[in-house]
Specification:
The complex is a heterodimer of chains A (about 290) and B (about 290). By secondary structure, chain A is an alpha/beta fold. Chain A has helices at about 40-45, 70-75, 90-100, 105-115, 130-140, 160-175, 185-195, 210-215, 260-265, 280-290; strands at about 1-10, 15-25, 30-35, 55-60, 65, 75-80, 150, 180-185, 195-200, 205-210, 220-225, 240-245, 250-255, 270-275. Chain A is built from ten helices and 14 strands. In chain A, strand 4 and strand 5 form a beta hairpin. In chain A, helix 3 (about 90-100) runs parallel beside helix 5 (about 130-140) and helix 4 packs antiparallel against helix 5. Chain A is elongated, with a radius of gyration of 23 Å. In chain A, about 40% of the residues are buried. The model of chain A has no long low-confidence stretch (mean pLDDT about 90). Chain B contains 13 helices and no strands. The longest helix of chain B has about 40 residues, at about 5-40. The N and C termini of chain B lie far apart (about 45 Å). In chain B, about 45% of the residues are buried. Classes of the chains: A alpha/beta (about 290), B mainly alpha (about 290). At the A-B interface, helix 2, strand 6 and helix 3 of A face helix 1 and helix 6 of B. The structure holds adenosine-5'-triphosphate and magnesium ion.
Chain lengths: ~290, ~290
């Protein structure tokens, strides 16, 4: 549904996006993550055809994001991370406006979403909190019947309960075969919703793959208690950050060396052993800070 | 490019309902009151009017309020329009500048425009809606001024037709439209609404002072200078004297040129970006203000 080919975006002499390539397939939820200022919103604005790529081409539904923006927008819904509304209109009036401009809408779904998100659409936007403004945009988006959802940190300001409602909405759309392009800083959200993850840093894509694939590229955490102290662990290839924690020795391992490391450790009489994949948080931390 | 313009125009007018009604009612009401007040208390007979005109035959006063015509008519209508045309045109221009910038750059700066653009609306729909709504406001302004002028002038002085009142209303509406277009252009060129506002008012001041330069020359030898300014042009309609319509057409033409330029910039620029670098506005104003002094 989305195809970004060698897109570069410069702001004056500053390169915000440097030769980006991405794809999103039908029915896929794609998480787009990266540190602040990495270029996530810039990518999304290129996709929306409100920034023109300096080089390369962004396509949505096979159409050019800049030239065919109006056609594309009939079938997408966008929610920014900081929704600003017109203070004198009520939430309901704003949703009506969006519906009116789009000309397509599921009214039953809208009523249900308003209830699920616990939104009072009769209040003026002036009185809404940040989270409530997000809800207005989310209700309008999910009730739109769009084929592709482009969400830029859509849940900033939502409480955990509403975060849950949001995640259910995304899964519901996914089950209908809709595409979701989600930029997020919330790792639990990414972990629960996404099929594939792309990591961007300083305007460059550093990793793209399924969560499983990304995990494989990283180290597992091992925690073992042995009868005798483990010797020679430091010098073993694929072992990092050895530390003693009471009875336990903890260290990180390169998954490709798992066999050899287990063999070595077992010589010292293993009593207990735990192994955990790195938390998503660790994983991203590693990517975010790498090569600084 | 223009998809959904009419829906967006309706949306703007809905948001403007109260605000614009108050503005227009205040302006039109002031006009009606002043006609009655001046007509019945200050300029009641020919002697008073001759005295007034003699006082106005003075370069600095004409620079301020506008040019006097050369014909010796001492009717109330011509003196009133001489006094009040620019004094009414300026608030109309200001109202239009505020209106257009509020619905273009200010909306964009606050992040509302981004959401509208992500909906199926064309790249030029929003600026087009801002201009169309401004056009509608100016038609209402023109109608309001025409009717009040026609009615109150009829009370003060019998025998004044409808056409001069219509010319009065349309002149003011046309000036309003032109400054709406000026504001539309700067809303595209400047990346902030404050910058756009600054440039628009700056251009308004330039237009005001070029015609002041021309009008203070009582020999009327620098007329050409007045004809590049919408303010100078509408003064040359000589309402209630000659009642020329061509200046209105020229004023509207100037507006269309500004609008076309604004649409052109809007068709290629990135969201949240201007064309004039930030800070250039302040520098330019400082430079230009320093010129006459230095
Ligand atoms: N209009 C602009 N002019 C100049 N630089 C810009 C402009 N817009 C964005 N940038 C720069 O481009 C870079 C990418 O910004 P972007 O908003 O895409 O980051 P992001 O990944 O969305 O960050 P965040 O997580 O904070 O939302 C930033 O360094 C930003 O300063
Ligand atoms: Mg962002």
């Amino acid at each position: 549904m989305i195809e970004i080919n060698n897109v570069t975006k410069n702001f004056g002499s500053f390169t915000a996006l440097n030769d980006i390539n991405l794809k999103l397939a039908q029915g896929e939820v794609f998480a787009y993550i990266g540190p602040n200022g990495a270029g996530k919103s810039t990518t999304i604005r290129v996709l929306l055809g409100i920034l023109q790529a300096t080089k390369g081409q962004a396509k949505v539904f096979g159409m050019d994001a800049w030239k065919d923006a109006v056609e594309i927008h009939k079938r997408i819904a966008y929610v920014p991370g900081d929704v600003n509304l017109w203070p004198n209109l009520t939430g309901g009036e704003v949703i009506d406006l969006f519906v009116n401009l789009r000309g397509r809408h599921d009214n039953v779904l809208r009523q249900r979403l308003i209830k699920d998100f616990n939104l009072d659409p009769t209040k003026k936007c002036r009185t809404y909190s940040k989270g409530n403004r997000q809800k207005v945009a989310l209700v309008a988006a999910f009730a739109s019947g769009a084929d592709l959802f482009i969400l830029d940190e859509p849940t900033s300001g939502l409480d955990p309960l509403m975060e849950q409602v949001f995640q259910d909405c995304v899964l519901e759309q996914k089950n209908k075969g809709k595409g979701v392009f989600l930029s997020s800083h919330i790792m639990s959200e990414v972990e629960r919703l996404c099929d594939r993850v792309g990591i961007i840093r300083d305007g460059q894509i550093v990793q793209v793959g399924t969560l499983e694939e990304l995990r494989h590229l990283t180290r597992y955490v091992m925690k073992v208690a042995t009868e005798r102290a483990i010797e020679g662990l430091d010098s073993l290839p694929g072992v990092f950050d050895v530390a003693q924690d009471g009875d336990y020795t903890t260290f990180n391992i390169d998954t490709r060396q798992t066999g050899a490391i287990l063999h070595h450790v077992s010589q010292f009489g293993v009593k207990k052993m735990e192994s955990a994949p790195p938390s998503l948080e660790d994983l991203f931390m590693q990517h975010y800070s790498k090569a600084n | 490019m223009f998809k959904n313009t009419f829906k967006l125009t309706g949306f703007i007018l809905k948001r403007e309902k109260v605000n614009s009604t108050v503005w227009i009612a205040a302006l039109v009401g002031t006009n009606a009151l002043l006609v009655l007040l001046m007509g019945f208390s200050i300029l009641t007979d020919t002697a008073e009017r001759i005295e007034m005109l003699a006082m106005l035959e003075n370069p600095s006063l004409q620079a301020m309020i506008g040019p006097m015509h050369s014909m010796n008519t001492y009717d109330f209508g011509s003196i009133y329009t001489l006094f009040m045309l620019l004094m009414m045109a300026i608030p109309v221009a200001i109202m239009n500048i505020f209106h257009v910038i509020r619905h273009t750059r200010a909306d964009e700066e606050l992040g509302r425009y981004e959401v509208l653009r992500s909906l199926p609306s064309g790249r030029l729909s929003n600026i087009n809606a801002a201009m169309l709504s401004a056009l509608i406001l100016n038609v209402v302004i023109a109608a309001g001024f025409t009717i009040t002028m026609w009615l109150t002038m009829g009370v003060v002085e019998s025998g004044r037709g409808f056409m001069p009142a219509l010319l009065w209303g349309v002149s003011l509406g046309a000036v309003g439209f032109t400054f709406a277009a000026v504001a539309a252009l700067f809303s595209q060129l400047s990346a902030s609404s404050r910058g756009a506002m600054g440039f628009s008012f700056f251009v308004m001041a330039i237009f005001y002072f070029t015609r002041a330069g021309a009008d203070q020359d009582l020999s009327r030898e620098s007329e050409a200078l007045a004809l590049i300014s919408p303010f100078g042009l509408i003064s040359r309609s000589w309402i209630y004297v000659y009642n020329y319509w061509w200046p209105v057409l020229v004023v509207l033409g100037i507006g269309l040129v500004f609008a076309a330029f604004a649409y052109w910039v809007c068709s290629f620029r990135d969201i949240d970006q201007g064309v004039i670098p930030q800070g250039a506005a302040a520098q330019m104003v400082v430079c230009l203000c320093a010129l006459p002094l230095g």
